[in-house]
Amino acid sequence: MARKLFPLLVVLIAGLALALWLVWPNGMTQDEALASLPADFAGDPVKGELLFNTAGCGSCHMNEQASAEKPEGLVGGKGLETPFGTFYPSNITPDPATGIGGWSETQFLNALQRGLRPDGLPYYPAFPYTAYAKASAEDLLHIKAYLDEQEPVEYQVPKHALAFPASIRLGVAAYKKLLVDFSPFEPDPNQTDEWNRGAYLTQALGHCGFCHTPRTPWQTEDASRAFEGAPPLKAGEKAAKKLVDRKPGAIVDALSSDAIDLFAIISEKSAMAHVSRAYDAVSDADKQAIETYILSFAP
Ligand code: HEC
Ligand code: HEC
Questions:
Q1: Whose CB among 45, 103, 110, 289 lies 3.0–4.6 Å from 198's, allowing a Cys bridge?
Q2: Which helix (H) or strand (E) holds 37?
Q3: What is the number of structural domains in the chain?
Q4: Residue ranges making up the domain that contains 51
Q5: Ligand 1 center–CA 57 separation, angstroms
Q6: Can you name the residues that pair with 162 across neighbouring β-strands?
Q7: Same domain, 233 and 167
Q8: Region 106-132 average pLDDT
Q9: Residues 42, 156: one domain?
């Protein structure tokens, strides 16, 4: 009898081990998280504000207009409607109860670079940590220094409205384990400094591919079709256009408020409008680097 049960037991234990491996948190210890920082590092809120704009954090987290139910500020923007349901971006003001007040640098980096909550559960990739994982600890902690300076606002965001099985947060852990690349950004030594700067800004902060690269059936960005344009997440909204066939200058031109107000190439209601406005703060050299990188994918 014991002999007959033995193979069953082996399969059971292997299955449990696999399940455990799939959902085991991928967090960094403090030493791991802060290893790349210079010894005298101090987060700089002025640098942080610029990086915050480059990374488009406000697109999802900023509520521009106070209403009876919801105060103004970084308390979470509109719900993100997706085929899985509606995600409500978090309150990222320093309010200790409903925001991220009191978070350590390690907790912040685990959220941005590992998609991991302080309690060890995963975040949904509607929060583009799949891109921010490639950002340097230094840049992200400048952003934290900027956020720490904001006014704390008490506001509890609603729970995400998701259909089963997307509603099971732990399932995202398996998705992360199998499909997300958490390796840091590596410059390509065969490319120019400008190209590498553009690659870093585009992949790690700007997350342009999040909207402009078509997705695989697994909902990851399809690297073989980088920047070829993608349908909108929400039916009825503007599609994110193909970028690789643009004329020189066209990508730089799209990255400013003028693209909306003056040239009307970006519609105020599109998901791009926040990006264009946020990039008013970004230097021309950085915008040009982004263009150089993206156009290098042209066939
Ligand atoms: C495309 C929309 C989007 C963008 C852009 C975005 N976020 Fe978020 N963020 C979210 C969503 C949605 C969540 C909630 C995820 C969840 O509950 O699993 C979130 C969660 C977070 C959290 C966790 C808060 C908590 O209380 O657990 C932090 C911190 C955060 N975002 C910071 C940032 C920063 C900093 C940036 C810019 C570098 C940024 N986000 C850009 C959508 C976004
Ligand atoms: C949140 C989704 C989203 C992100 C992130 C995003 N885009 Fe867009 N983008 C769009 C959409 C949607 C449009 C179409 C806008 C329209 O038709 O009004 C667009 C349009 C554009 C255009 C076309 C302008 C034209 O002349 O037609 C360019 C160029 C562009 N984006 C570049 C970028 C770059 C570079 C980045 C990264 C820094 C970026 N986008 C990030 C959604 C996004």
A1: 289
A2: none
A3: 2
A4: 30-179
A5: 7
A6: 85
A7: no
A8: 97
A9: yes
